Amino acid sequence: MSTAPIPGTGEGSAPEAARTPSRLRELVPALAGLAVGAAALVLSMQIPEGNRLTQFSPRWWPEGLALLLMGLSLLHAGLSWARPRALEAPEEATRAGAVRLVAILAAILGYGVLWYFVDFRVSTAVLFAGLTYIGGGRGWKALLIFPVITTAVLYLLFGVLLRVPL
């Protein structure tokens, strides 16, 4: 009878110290969120105020989102630093995951280009269908109904109710 190591138990694999994630690795998402929030805050400060001091200015919403992102990133950093270390590191990055990440970023970049030439409703529905496909969604409901309903909700919220020019 052979005594092969059981997958996932740690037997016959790297020492525990090598499998335990470092604190820095746990802080990377929080630091990235903090950097994106700070960049968004700096960019939102460049939006002109306008003459109406009695109402919210055009920069209120982007500033609020940037500050919220920065606050949540700091909370994430504090919680990940305070909690006990995980016993195991996350799984290693795979080629398929990297390809999926690059495809998502390319779809978002393509959305920005497409929106320049095509209406918001069309380009947003195409983006959601593409992101759903990249994320593993298959079938007509996931690739047609979900993007159309989500785009309609966004258009009604921002285009109709809030009167944001889309």
Automatic annotation (TrEMBL):
Keywords: Membrane, Transmembrane, Transmembrane helix. It holds the Pfam family TctB. The chain crosses the membrane at residues 27-48, 60-79, 99-118, 138-162. It comes from the Bacteria. Residues 34-166 form the DUF1468 domain. InterPro entries: DUF1468 (IPR009936). Signal peptide: none annotated. This is DUF1468 domain-containing protein.
